[in-house]
Amino acid sequence: MDNAKNIIDLHDVQGNIMVNFAGYGCHKSRYFFLHISNAAHGRMFIKNITGLVSTAAFMAEKDEDGLIIPPLVTTNIAFTYNGLKELGIPTLTLQDFPDEFVVGIRNRASILGDDLTSAPEKWDAVYRKDIHLFISIDGANEALIEERYQQIKDIIDDSLKECKEEHLVPADQASGIKILDGCRDDESDNKAYQDASVVYEEVDGQKIPTAKEHFGYTDGISNPFFKGMTPEMGEVLGGGKRVGYGSPKSPASWEPIETGEFILGYKDEANEYPAAPIPKLFSKNGSYLVFNKFHENVGKYHAYLDAASQKYDIEKELLAAKYVGRWRNGAPLTTYPKKADAEDAWKVWSAAQWQVGKLFAAIMELKGKIATEQDPAKKDLLIQEKKKLLAEYFGAAANFKVINQTFTAFNYDDDIPGSKCPVGAHMRRANPRGALEFGNKNAFANPSALDNRRRIIRRGLPYGVPTLDSNDKEHGTIIMTIVSNIKRQFEFVIQQWLNYGNDFKLANDKDPITGNMGEEGGQMVIEGNPALPDDPAKFLLEIPRFVETRGGVYLFLPSITSLNMIGKGIVDPT
Amino acid sequence: MPNQAGKAYGLTVLCPLKQVDAEGKSVSIKIKNTLWDLQMPEDKITNEDSEKSVVTVRAPDFFFKHVPNTYLARFYILEDVFYEDYPYELEHLKSKYLVFTSNFYGDLEPYLKGMFENAEKEIKSIWQDCYGFDSKTINANSFADYIKKCQVETTFFFNGSVEPEPKNSPNAKARSLQEQLKSLYLKQEFSRFVFQNAHKKPEELLDAFRKFVQETQPEAEFPRWKAGGNDLKTIVEKG
């Protein structure tokens, strides 16, 4: 495979495009939004914060033991159209931004199906304000997040002082940057930030971080794998694009997606450079980020699940899996249609994952001890111990990579009618993995020709206190979707695949989990197995709206070079 | 003949960049910042109207004005080759390159030495993270050798001098940078003269022209344009 270093400059691309920081120990996040009223202050702030902005360079720079050392706290920054305008980006550059980005997410509500309880007037107040800048902090714990947050607030204040010292603003200029309040949580509807955290499970009195969201599904298992990613950044089997009809477990069946589907300035799946603003230096290595706050009606979800499992005589966990296409533990339904097999697969998968984490933590602890140990003999023993653990760690990591493929490397070729994974299940809608050929091999140029241009990177974490019965408290998931074309990728998937069913031959059925069900509720077909005498199709009716939009922003996620240009005020499209 | 058009020389240099510097920072981002800062250098000026007497200002200025005989110089980072079109194979460079092009009057070796002598600090800050460039040991001679190693021979360069030496002409004369700056000054001033005096009677016009000649001194070295000038109000150099 191509050497990642030579395709994408990992020093220049913001890290959240390439890496899910939550998967590297950043279990907490804080998101906040700023408004700029003075361009000079705004630019000085951008100039001064650029050094803090996290890239994915750490993924390619292993330490002396060959380990990737992830950051404990990160910062990423993105801009709305109005923000770029306020910062003085030239008109010629602004004119090149796509319409949907210019008008912003609230004006795309009808396309996105954000109606009724999801309508923008129901959103947290902050998302109805004129947001210019978005900053996300991911961190290993709350203290680190708070420290970084205060540091950024200091940079805002110091930048104003610097502007005054350089006479860029009058001496009596008030702050030209405001952190917008209006984020809602259980205590207040007027907070200056949105916090998020992984959901913890208690095992033997210990709080164990999980990848679960509030309905209980293990989330974020499969993300796109594109050219320029290192093997540590993802999995080409299942994450890449399908290039044949061989076994989904065979490397010959998948290839990395073209970089230009996710990062501007690179060839995309149409063999073109994605449309992007000029100058090229301003847009290259940048991307678009759609921020969404999705509320989860956990009470309604469980109530419906209980009632439907009785009404349709279907085991509750199986029904939960049919909604999504994965068992709640993460095992894909199409590979593991039986609960017992899924549980066995999960045990192996989670034990392998746990082993990698445990060994990494032990090595890091040993490294700390070695650094402080004075006695040469003891130090030598520790070094020997580390050597042993390193060998175990690399073995465990390689082992997990193989085992993880049982959760990622699959397609629906053996399940075209959907008797295992329903055709309308959430995961099969959002990423059909070639299923849109409906078994008509070579119907298109390649099996996944209809989905290669609709792939999306998902980042984010759950927010709020876990619950089993609440609808009205603040609990849900922050989803950040990263794409090089908001309209073709994000909006299309939401409008055509999640809130509509025609492409799946499912008429106007919506996604059972995320669909914007109307007051009459939604419906879902759970296909039966015609080969079995006692497995008829089931038609779920009156599915309530489980997920509601509580906020959203369309953002441009520039490269470090671009941030430097914005900060210095030297974006020149001529 | 590559690289030359009369006495005008077109230098094209591709210097491979290290990926990261000694501190692990991206070299291409660092050089971009260095070049941006060099063309908008900080200057401390005394401002009597202000409560603070010395203030920092930034104004467009480029150190190349101190490098003798330069018609035109450009730097850029070549990050990768451009993808042309389907179905051509997509290729990638093994490293990024600092591209330096200069169009100057005269011969290569003395020009490079003159460049080093007049811009040593800037040269070191730009080239410090290029492969094969050692900013601790570099001197005028080794800089010239280094640049020659990285030189790409080409007839395809942007020519800032439009008047190559007419070899067979009895009045053979190369246009040095100084002569070009004088010509540009005269062209500008003569245009101004025409617009201001076109309506005058012949005797008035003659007087005005004599005054024009006296002021502009067409045969003398000065006044002329300043090298590296970028503001019409301040561009004239009296000498």
Fraction in helix of chain B:
25-40%
Q: How much helix is in the residues of chain A?
A: 25-40%
Strand content of chain A: 15-25%
Overall mean pLDDT of chain B stands at 85
Can you give the mean pLDDT of chain A?
95
Shape of chain B: elongated
* Beta-strand content of chain B: 15-25%
How many beta-strand runs of chain A? Answer: 16
Alpha-carbon Rg of chain A, integer? 24 Å
The most extensive interface between chains reads:
A-B, 23 and 28 residues
The unreliable regions of chain B are none
Distance between the termini of chain A: 37 Å
Q: Briefly note the structural class of the backbone of chain B.
A: alpha+beta
Describe the fold and architecture:
The complex is a heterodimer of chains A (about 575) and B (about 240). Chain A has about 575 residues and is of the alpha+beta class. Chain A has helices spanning about 5, 15-20, 40-50, 80-85, 90-95, 100-105, 110, 140-165, 235-240, 280-285, 300-310, 315-325, 340-370, 375-410, 425-430, 485-500, 560-570, and strands spanning about 30-35, 75-80, 135-140, 175-180, 195, 200-205, 205-210, 240, 255, 285-295, 455-460, 460-465, 475-485, 520-525, 540-545, 545-555. The model of chain A is unreliable at about 1-5 (pLDDT under 50). Chain B contains five helices and eight strands; from the N terminus they run E-E-H-E-E-E-E-H-H-H-H-E-E. In chain B, helix 1 crosses helix 2 and helix 4 runs antiparallel to helix 5. The longest helix of chain B is centred in the C-terminal third of the chain and has 21 residues, at about 175-195. Chain B is elongated, with a radius of gyration of 22 Å. The chains are: A alpha+beta (about 575), B alpha+beta (about 240). The interface of A and B includes residues 61, 166, 564 and 570 of A.
